[in-house]
Amino acid sequence: IYLSTIKGGVYKFAPDGQMKWKHKEMAEIPEVPSIMKGMLFATNARGEVFALNMSTGDLLWRKKHAPAAAGDTWSMTAYDDSSDKLVGHDVVVAALSTNGGSFNDYIVGMKAQSGEEIWRFKPKFPVYNSIQSTVQGCLVFADAMGRLYRIKLKDG
Q1: Nearest CA to 156 among 105, 119, 115, 123?
Q2: Between the chain's N and C termini, which has fewer beta carbons within 10 Å?
Q3: How far is CA 41 from CA 55, 58, 107, 148, in A?
Q4: How many Å from the N-terminal Cα to the C-terminal Cα in the chain?
Q5: How far is it, in rounded angstroms, from Cα 57 to Cα 34?
Q6: CATH architecture under which domain 2-152 falls
Q7: Predicted TM-score of the model (pTM)
Q8: How far apart are CA 127 and CA 141, in angstroms?
Q9: By the 8 A CB rule, do 69 and 100 touch?
Q10: Using CA of residue 80, residue 69, residue 30, residue 18, what is the dihedral sign?
């Protein structure tokens, strides 16, 4: 069981409730992390995206992709490319902000193994409480005005 808190904590619990490990960020974690292939991905309010080892809680990588992340609640997305081979690598997606206000201005796609930025997409309107889905190698999401987007995970 994995839990993140707005106060910057990420925790792993056993089914009996015993805490297995704790990771503390020096900034808020406004979103719901995503998990894939033994890694947990999250973003902090400083615009940093990071990956933790799900077994140990050890930091695998950290990359700063923006000045901030908005304080609204949203979800990260992790895409496993091993089944359909449409992208060429696993992708992590986060919504990020240029100013840290209530909205995120753009969506960033990163390589899951390293956090290296692959693409950056700016929707017509900012995103708020972003929840993304993946289908056939694409990311599907809506902006704050309800406009739907479907972009390729390979190149944005």
Answers
A1: 119
A2: N
A3: 13, 12, 15, 24
A4: 32
A5: 14
A6: 7 Propeller (2.130)
A7: 0.93
A8: 9
A9: yes
A10: positive
